[in-house]
Amino acid sequence: MMHIEIAARQLAGCTDFVPCPARLHLGSQNAEGVDVLSFALPAAWAGKSVALHIERADGTPQSPLLLDGQGQVAVDRRLTAARAGRWMLTATDGDGYTAYTQPGCFDTGETLPTDSVGEPPSPSLYEQFVAQVLGSAGDAAASATAAAQSASAASTSAGQAADAVTEAQTKADAAGASAAAAEAAALRAEAVAPTEGPVISVNSMGGRVQLDAHDVGALPLPDSPAAGCLLRIEAVDSETGEVSTEAVPESDLNSFVRRTDKPTAQQAGPVKLAEGYGLALTDGGELRVAPAASSQLAAMTEGWAPVTPALLPLAVKLALAAVWESAGWTDADRTGARATLGAAAASALDALTARVEALELQGGAEITQHTFTADLASLTNLTASGVWNAAAARLEF
Q1: 67-101 per-position pLDDT tens digit
Q2: How high is the mean pLDDT of the chain?
Q3: Does pTM top 0.85 for this prediction?
Q4: Which of 65, 135, 160, 237 could tie 52 with a disulfide, CB 3.0–4.6 Å?
Q5: What gap in Å lies between CA 126 and CA 355, rounded to an integer?
Q6: What H or E segment, with its residue span, contains residue 356?
Q7: CA 345 to CA 310: how far, in whole Å?
Q8: What pLDDT score does 190 carry?
């Protein structure tokens, strides 16, 4: 037995199948049934049909030899009848795959002519011939016995095969019925399916379809469905996944549903806090007073902001300065302010009182306790005593 390996190699980016050895010596010329060629095929050829192609040295092609399941082929006279020639393997699978090996060569050994009539064989040769015939007869008898046993086994296998055929026929009938049902369903689908454009219906509904949980089977229907009720899940079975639901009127869910109506003087409702209007909601849900800052008091534009005790003197000063022309400062106001501010702010309040009284003076009033200053541009049409300071635009006494 001669072993030949077929190796797959990448040459210039393409796959080439190279035999090793590529040159075969096939023994004597015209020898037949003596040697066997055994090929080690590449993994890519598994399950494919592989054949040995032969071309004699004179260019005459021979019918190819099909390799058996072990990748072997017996050497016959298609190879050995010529002194030399070339050989090649092909692999096909019937689905478009065809591969070739690089061609190899072969040669045979020269023999003497054997087609001329020679002398009868010597007895010894004759005896050997008879022995070979008798041996062949014994082999034939043994083969007949083995054939009889094989026939019995084949009969048993035939019965099993018949049972298998019956079972296969049953399955084929069932498959045929399923195929017929599938074909009928396909015909029904084709009858209603549009040839172009969007789907014309969903769940027997046409147009722009909106599916809810019931349409797709996400939730079961309640025991007693009612219009205007909400679907509430009562329980879910952890083992089976079954969901129990009930229909609940919206009025029963007031404690769980946030109201969306706005409050009015006649009807209460939810409220929201606007930023910077004296109230603040903490992260913990507490409602607190947001006091005014000194900048807000100085601007005097945000009267809603509450005043803290620390900023109260500033607030009083700013308020009096803004309204002194229209409102007087009474003794009751002073007493109330002192009571509010406390003894610690008495000196500040006295200073503020002096300033307010000075602002409350009207023209022509007699000045007995408090001095005042006036800025004059010039002394035209004015009679006055004192020293005129032109740089400071004032009279100095």
Answers
A1: 888 899 999 888 888 899 999 999 988 788 999 99
A2: 75
A3: no
A4: 65
A5: 162
A6: helix 346-360
A7: 11
A8: 66
Tokens 């090929």 map to which residue? 39
Local structure of 4: helix, strand or coil = strand
Antiparallel, parallel or unpaired: β 84-92 and 229-236: unpaired
Residue 252 CA to residue 309 CA, distance in Å, equals 49
pLDDT at 45: 92
Ordered strands of the 72-74 beta sheet:
14-20, 2-11, 36-40, 72-74
Contact status, residue 9 vs residue 16, Cβ threshold 8 Å: yes
- Show the tokens assigned to 268: 């209460």
What is the DSSP track for 145-197?
HHHHHHHHHHHHHHHHHHHHHHHHHHHHHHHHHHHHHHHHHHHHHHHHS-SSS
| Residue 234 to residue 212: CA distance in whole angstroms | 19
pLDDT band at 117 (very low <50, low <70, confident <90, very high): very low
